[in-house]
Amino acid sequence: MRRGGGAAAVAVVLLAGCESIPDADVPASGGSGAPAPDGRAASPLDNPDGTRPGLAPVRDAQERAEAAALIDKLATKGRGPKTGYDRDEYGYAWMDTADGVPLARNGCDTRNDILQRDGQELRFRSGSDCVVVSLTLADPYTGETIEWRKQKAAEVQIDHVVPLSYSWQMGASRWSEAKRRQLANDPLNLLPVDGSANSAKSDSGPASWLPPSKAVRCAYAVRFAQVAVKYEMPVTKADKETMREQCGV
């Protein structure tokens, strides 16, 4: 399904950067290796650093066994209070200076890096090779194809697979600011997705929210686990059980 409908104006700030809406745009001069609507997306098991695009389904028995082994590594604990949580505790949004993660300090903010990684038919703001103003996105969460334009920015949002406030409640409140900045800007933890699906997810863990597309639910569980393992972060018992169930184990 190909669509390009609008989204609530109040959500625009979720994606809007410091750049203004362009008067003109230019096509990308080369491909980004990102997924096209025909399904060219990387399996999370083949993409442990998050630098490849998309979220391809986990399909065969061997991959599901690998997924189960990864999920089994997760420690569990209860979700703590949100006391003291603030987005600014993770650095300003989409900073290019979160050292220790791929794509840092490349001259382009994290948001536009992720749009370039996953988008097809990219067009940039005139005079820029960074600021994406339109693209075609194969949305992993809904299975739809979205023709996105910056004028309707909130139609595509950048999702933190492990939500920042979730991480705060699971121990990030005691991390260094540098580690929190890494989590907030790590390509492994970021996916451009349908804005309404992302809004519905909010700060939920897998036990409370899963992608509408059942085909990618195991892949989503794997990606959630990859992030949690990398940052030595526990998940709730219910989330771990749900993640195992999505991968058939």
Describe this structure in words.
It is a single chain. The protein has 249 residues and is an alpha+beta fold. It has 7 helices and 7 strands; from the N terminus they run E-E-H-H-E-E-E-E-H-H-E-H-H-H. It has helices spanning 61-72, 110-118, 164-169, 177-185, 195-201, 217-230, 237-246; strands spanning 2-3, 25-27, 120-125, 132-138, 145-149, 156-160, 190-194. Strands 1-5-4-3-2 form a 5-stranded mixed sheet. A hairpin with a 6-residue loop joins strand 3 and strand 4. Helix 1 (61-72) packs parallel to helix 6 and helix 6 packs across helix 7. The longest helix has 14 residues, at 217-230. The two termini are 31 Å apart. Residues 5-26 and 28-38 have low confidence and may be disordered. One of its GO terms (molecular function) is endonuclease activity. Residues 23-56 are annotated as: Disordered.
Topology:
Layout: E1 2-3, E2 25-27, H1 61-72, H2 110-118, E3 120-125, E4 132-138, E5 145-149, E6 156-160, H3 164-169, H4 177-185, E7 190-194, H5 195-201, H6 217-230, H7 237-246
Parallel strand pairs: 1-5
Antiparallel strand pairs: 2-3, 3-4, 4-5, 6-7
Helix pairs in contact: 1-6, 6-7
Q: Which value, in Å, is the CA radius of gyration?
A: 17 Å
Distance between the termini: 31 Å
pLDDT averaged over residues: 88
What is the ordering of alpha helices and beta strands? EEHHEEEEHHEHHH
Give the tally of β-strands. Answer: 7
Strand composition percent: 5-15%
Shape verdict:
globular
What's the total helix number? Answer: 7
Portion in helices: 25-40%
Unreliable parts = 5-26, 28-38
Secondary structure class reads alpha+beta
Q: Taking strands numbered 1, 2, ... along the chain, how are they ordered across the largest sheet? A: 1-5-4-3-2
Describe the largest sheet: 5 strands, mixed
